[in-house]
Amino acid sequence: MCRWLAYSGSPIRLEELLYRPRFSLIDQSLHSRMGVETTNGDGYGVGWYPVDGSPEPALIRGVGPAWNDANLREIARSISSPLFLAHIRASTGTPVQQTNCHPFRYANWLWVHNGSIREFARLKRDLVMAVDPKLYSSMAGSTDSEVMFYLALTYGLRDRPVAAVERMAGLVESTAREHGVPDPLQMTVATTDGDRTWCFRYSSERRSRTLFYSTAISALRTLYPDQKMLHGLSEETRLIVSEPLGELEGAWQPVPESSYGVIQKGDDELGSFEPSMP
């Protein structure tokens, strides 16, 4: 499977999360503690929104292991962003190539995924044929993750993100039933339009991969007054991760099974996720 993180808040350099924490995303590319695989070396990607407020995110993706990529290190120490998604890949069978690395981008949207569609090769034709023809030509890779993204776009991701992802999941499960594939969907997903960020934790068997969100900054400042970094972050700052980046007690909360969350200005949201037929 894979590991990913989604950050939203005060602008910070990418390296602050990709490299510096004890259990950083780069460390997880070699030594994941909670993933299906310990090593996630089949490519990487980072998508970030510029500090100047430009709506379209920038993107870097590579097919080599993240821990050994000099270009990623250079960019991470040079780029600051208020919102970015980062991903390290462990292939579930599709080729190791740049177009299969996350994040996937469409206009101002980004998408990362950890998980798989079981027996994707059997289901792929039916799923791809459900993608809006106007979106089809934008698909460049061969992964189940990218198909999930374009199905969500087809079902209204840009207008009603939660409903769109629920419809995508419902189509995957109904298609799998037609082909006799049990428990087809395993996913933790993050997607963003550059303003709000949505995360999803769901699996057909109700045993989803791990996902955590950071405790409110105000509470962390009270718990750890000597942590200088916390005092430079706004109250809106939030982080979602496949597995915690450190061991500060109380810093990480598990995203509940079969649920979604929304990071946004003001109060964040947490709700139940239930696939539905499109």
From TrEMBL:
A family per Pfam: GATase_4
Membrane-crossing residue ranges in chain numbering: none
InterPro entries tied to this protein: EgtC-like, Gamma-glu_amide_hydrolase, GATase_2_dom, Ntn_hydrolases_N
Keywords on record: Glutamine amidotransferase, Transferase
Boundaries of every Glutamine amidotransferase type-2 domain copy: 2-278
A single MF term (Gene Ontology): transferase activity
Keyword Ribonucleoprotein in annotation: no
PROSITE patterns the UniProt entry points to: GATASE_TYPE_2 (PS51278)
Region (Disordered) residue spans: 258-278
Domain of life: Bacteria
Keyword Membrane part of the UniProt annotation: no
SUPFAM superfamilies in the record: N-terminal nucleophile aminohydrolases (Ntn hydrolases)
Name of the protein in question: Glutamine amidotransferase
Lineage: Bacteria, Bacillati, Actinomycetota, Actinomycetes, Micromonosporales
